[in-house]
Amino acid sequence: MRGRSPWPYLLIAPTVAGGAFLLLYPLLKAAVISFQHFRMGELIRGGAAFAGLENYAELLAGEEFWQVLLRTLAWTAINVVLIVVLATGVALMLPRLRRGLRLALMSALALAWAMPIIAATTVFQWLFQSELGVVNWLLVTLGFDSFQGYTWFANGTATFAVLVVLVVWQSVPFAALTLYAGLTTIPVELFESARIDGGTGRQVFCRVTFPMLRQLFALVAALEVIWVAKCFPQIWVLSQGGPGDATTTLPVYAFKIARVLHRYDLGSAVAMLTVLLLAVALVANLRRMVRS
Amino acid sequence: MKRLALNATAVAVLIVTIFPVYWMFLTAFKPTRDIQSDTPTFWPAHPTLDHFVTAVNAPGFWTYWRNSLLVTAGAVLIALVVALMAAFAVARMRWRGRGAFVVAVFAAQMAPWEALLVPVFIIARDTDLLDSLAMLTGVYFMITLPFTIVTLRGFLAAIPPELEEAAQVDGCSRVVAFRRVVFPLLAPGLMATSLFGFITAWNEFAFVNVLIIKDQDKRTLPVWLSSFRDVFGTDWGATMAAASLFALPVLLLFLFLQRHVGTGMTAGAVKG
Amino acid sequence: MKHRILALVAVLALSACGTPAEEPKASGPAKLTVWIMDGSVTQELLKKFETAYEAAHRGIDLDIQIQAWDGIGERVTAALASTDAPDVIEVGNTQVAQYSASGGVTDLTAKVGELKGADWLPGLAQPGNIDGKQYGIPWYAANRVVVYNKDLFAEAGIKEPPKTRDEWLEITKKLNKDGNQGIYLTGQTWYALAGFIWDEGGDLAVQEGGKWKGALDTPQALAGMDFYKRLQALGKGPKDADEANPPQHEVFAQGKVAQIIAVPGIAARVLEVDAKLKDKMGFFPIPGKTADKPGTVFTGGSDLIIPAASKRQEEAYELVKALAGEQFQTELAKAMSFVPNRTSLAGVLSGEEGTAAMAKGAANGRATPNTPNWAAVEATSVIKQYMTAVLTGADPAAEARKVSESITSTLNSGS
């Protein structure tokens, strides 16, 4: 168990080898590229020249990077909060439903989760079309006449909102099903005794449910933060980061720079800065991980 | 009254959740003429299988299926085995560098894969690994590995080590003890994590797009899914039919693993 | 017996000569990989070409791969950067400049004469030419015309297609009633906008002293946008989408849209949706400001390139020659309603209404600004977003200034 046994090192060897070749090596390469003049020509012909800190200077001098960073934070926060709150609601609702309805709802969640990202994004784009879209049709039918031909994708806030709806819709199923499964592991006696003590629904949640599932909430929230912050295809298909820059988050920004403008050098610099910022932001979290 | 409100809410959630999925299936069965209409129709008046025929007859469909299954299953299985070993080392053994290893794995979940596309392409090219399913499998393996380790580690930690020790006392070797005692308890966790890996690899498009170039027969299903679009626009019907077929394996896998998914994640996290 | 052995030896010797010496491991015919975009050529035509070509060129095995549009930019870039690239690639004429400038494409300047490049369509030849070197070989072009519903025109009592913009607005207004749309023009059909701007004497971007400058904020360009807005209002085209989304041929096929702006090849798509519209579709060139000249149009189309990383340069060139040659060009133009790559071949278009209208407009064809970075302007869809903003009520001058600045910075971002 302890001492100088070679076993642990043998056991992690494949992970380390895989990580070294397929993650660390590309990362180092990206780091090198970020200090070079490396664009489409250099990718094809080779022979990139050293450029020092030029790319970083260009990035940090402009306001855009910082705006994008702030927007990404807001994007992540809004989505994750909505996802966790809604998922908690659904998870708390599930055990209270009759069997048939519960199964129906769980199947619906599973279906939504299994729907390919591109298909879901396309469908949403379509539902929110200004002229033939179902959402506008529904709103007008319900009496909101101002939505006749409303152009969701002309307005930055509206586009942002549509994207939030899409991402939340895609993410809630996983979170809800996980939290629901967690709920089922809590012994029923705990709830009963809490209720006998005269606890209201909210008190029961705060005193029993949440403390019991604290770790699970943390895990779900952490995973959602990662997924939402890195979310890319949805935004690109729906809005290309527009209108203006209204929905340009970090991954979209990096994509625009690297693969639309073919500025692989600047794109790598963005990636390096992102990694750095993430590392700093996560130090606290990581420390906890190590201690456990 | 309270009951009514609860059920009403549940039905509302159900509708919102299912509607986009329903719309996908519905469109797949609608004739093209009915797809764009002024007033939406919520039931296929003239159902047709044309779009499925188009989708299935698209070039390379069966080859892409096979490739996708091979690559995805390969990546997920290798990741499971490798992750299990690493998770075991982390959860059950004390060794120098363990803390650093855990930090590295956790951080690796945040790897900016979008930005690593070009470096990975260059590496594949320089090592003659373009047009290779093995390279693709490797990349998907690496994308899913960190997550798999983190969840499996949490899951392993939840299984009391005393169980193994007891088995060892009974004369089993450590490997046998692991196989007989820990593995069965771990199975749900393995299944749950494999589903996440499966979904990630199954949907991946950016890497296959640049790593498989000249050998068209090595492309995967996402390429096919995106192929119903040309200069005149997207063939919605065919795309939705294709998407329905594309979602099928994930759905089947989910139904198959369903009872394990939730419990696996939970058990992994409760003591994480 | 002796003769038989001799014959066998001879056959063996001959077949030994047949295999190229520099390709020792090639045991079969040489495989040539060709990338053709989805929708460019019908399967039948490709099959026919392949069979004929392989029969005429012993030892060549054509592998024609149809390429999906999604992610094509990255795929072509990766192909050019690879060590064993496809041998011939079709690329859009607004994309070809960036690939040519990258150094990954074979320089075919020496072959221009042989390919009869003297009368190539400028809209295809210029983007394929960087610093006087010809990399892209023109393949086919298409420009937009107005496709109209003859029934709706008859109902509204319109006998003659409009000759000027004013007439066009007038008849479109007449058509736009009783639940019918005068024109279905989506808010982001920016190729149409480009034509209107050119008609006014403006441009998308101009080169000044070696620097590019976005020009959507000039009075001419704003006048073009203003006309677009007036036209767009005469129907229910979504202001925040482009013509592919939803596909406009599906909307047109519903029979309640009087006109759309599209390449004539769209007729085949309309019929796929509803075959009843056969013989009910008419075509006329996009009207100009005055009756003597049709409107300026964007020349869309494709060039063929040979990646420098292709291992079969000579065979690839032979193939390009066949694809760009008179015979295939004629067949392609007829089958797909395209403009052939050389003006002297334009005669094939006269027979049919749609292509005839296109040929009239093609005389006034223009290309997007000739710089490798133009592709990036297109990909970020800033022009589309500008159009949506103006159409939904934003101040045109302010929005135009913003988008011009963005274009300026993209075009000058170096390579």
UniProtKB/TrEMBL annotation, chain A:
What this protein is called in its record is Sugar ABC transporter permease
Tell me where the transmembrane regions lie.
Answer: 7-28, 73-94, 103-128, 160-183, 266-286
Name all ABC transmembrane type-1 domain ranges.
69-287
Q: Which UniProt keywords apply?
A: Cell membrane, Membrane, Transmembrane, Transmembrane helix, Transport
Localization per Swiss-Prot or TrEMBL:
Cell membrane
Species per Swiss-Prot/TrEMBL record: [Actinomadura] parvosata subsp. kistnae
Among the record's GO biological process terms, what is one?
A: transmembrane transport
Query: What protein family is recorded?
Result: Belongs to the binding-protein-dependent transport system permease family.
This protein's superkingdom? Bacteria
- Give a Gene Ontology cellular component term annotated to this protein: plasma membrane
Q: What is its main location?
A: membrane
Topological type in the membrane: Multi-pass membrane protein
TrEMBL record, chain B:
Family annotation (InterPro entries)? BP-dep_ABC_trans_perm, MetI-like, MetI-like_sf
PROSITE patterns noted in UniProt = ABC_TM1
Query: Which coarse location class applies to the principal site listed for this UniProt protein?
Result: membrane
GO cellular component assignments: plasma membrane
Is the Cytoplasm keyword given for this protein? no
The membrane-spanning stretches of this chain are 5-25, 69-89, 101-124, 139-160, 181-202, 236-257
Localization of this protein: Cell membrane
Single Gene Ontology BP annotation: transmembrane transport
Membrane topology of the entry: Multi-pass membrane protein
Name the UniProt key words of this record, in alphabetical order. Answer: Cell membrane, Membrane, Transmembrane, Transmembrane helix, Transport
- Has keyword Cell membrane? yes
Q: Which residues form the ABC transmembrane type-1 domain?
A: 65-257
Classification via PANTHER family: INNER MEMBRANE ABC TRANSPORTER PERMEASE PROTEIN YCJP (PTHR32243:SF18), MALTOSE TRANSPORT SYSTEM PERMEASE-RELATED (PTHR32243)
The family classification in the record reads: Belongs to the binding-protein-dependent transport system permease family.
Task: Report the protein name in the record.
Answer: Sugar ABC transporter permease
User: What species does this protein belong to?
Assistant: [Actinomadura] parvosata subsp. kistnae
Automatic annotation (TrEMBL), chain C:
**A single GO BP annotation from the record?**
maltodextrin transmembrane transport
Q: Which residues form a coiled coil?
A: none
* Keywords attached to this entry: Signal, Sugar transport, Transport
State any single GO MF term.
Answer: maltose binding
- Is NAD given among the entry's keywords? no
A GO CC annotation recorded here is: ATP-binding cassette (ABC) transporter complex, substrate-binding subunit-containing
Pfam families to which the protein is assigned, alphabetical: SBP_bac_1 (PF01547)
Annotated signal peptide: 1-21
SUPFAM superfamilies membership: Periplasmic binding protein-like II
UniProt keyword annotation of Transport present: yes
InterPro entries noted in UniProt: SBP
Family per similarity comment: Belongs to the bacterial solute-binding protein 1 family.
Query: What protein name is recorded for this chain?
Result: Sugar transporter
Q: Which organism is it from?
A: [Actinomadura] parvosata subsp. kistnae
